[in-house]
Amino acid sequence: MKGFLEDANYSIGLLDEGATLADVIDNCIYEHTHTGKRAFYVGDLGKLVKKNIQWQNVMAPIKPFYPVRCNSTPGVLEILGTLGVGFACSSKSEMALVQDLGISPENIIYTNPCKQASQIKYAAKAGINIMTCDSDVELKKIARNHPNAKLLLHIATEDISADEEMNMKFGTTLKNCRHLMECAKELGVQIVGVKFHVSGSCKELQTYIHAISDARCVFDMAEEFGFKMNMLDIGGGFTGSELQLEEVNHAIRPLLDVYFPKESGVNVIAEPGCYYVSSAFTLAVNIIAKKAVECDKLLPSGVEQTRNDDEPVFTYYINDGVYGSFASKLSEKLNTIPEVHK
User: Fold this and answer.
1) For range 91-116, the mean pLDDT
2) Domain 46-276 adopts which CATH fold?
């Protein structure tokens, strides 16, 4: 592999002809054995381009805004920026990171639901005007620190299939939207659109349909207050599966054509994060320990044991976990299936 970018935390290079992902992992394992480093990722940045082509083929003209928190590797951000993807940032450091790559403020959205006043001021100074809001507390904070902000009201969705314990709700109700518009009018703050988010674990496409219908209600409500609405953000939740992408598109396209037709001047955007990077990166870990356990202790309650009692059962421990690369398992139902490399 010919490297052309080296950093303390990552490197980017071109593969020699005939080289495979397995070869790259082998090389990294050899290097890490000598340097004492821990688990690592190997990414195929070409897959980002393929994912963007897939998005354009299925979801156009919905413009993607990549959530930087999903993977903030500069190589990933630079490629996506070159492809014309916008960025959804949740902190000052993320906004600074994408601006250092030459991304214009118009292609950046500040999406943190609970913003620090100092970071709102930073966004104002940087010319980043579009941001989300779901409460009067946030609205007043934004009015004080960024009076030229253009707000997307974040409305809640009814995700009936999600695990209640894992489903951290953000967003306001339709009823409260009127109150927020009254406050915005008094404070002189612009509301320009609506945002909602459907969890990637949601299997009910009706959730999207209800959310788009609710968004249309908010747009109609905004006309009463004289707000000129021009943006709808349908959020993230795109898993990376082409089938899921097509199913979502099939569900939302008729409603978008009716409620937000092209002639309405409303720009529809989305925030696909895992969609872009989940299939592009492979995590390599070491098994650092194992222990024999009783089989019945590993089975969920009510599941009948079908294996031979004479066969040993082991629990394996790896050098990564929920405080590292598997953090999303704390908030999402993920079933990661490992493959033995060597």
Assistant:
1) 96
2) TIM Barrel (3.20.20)
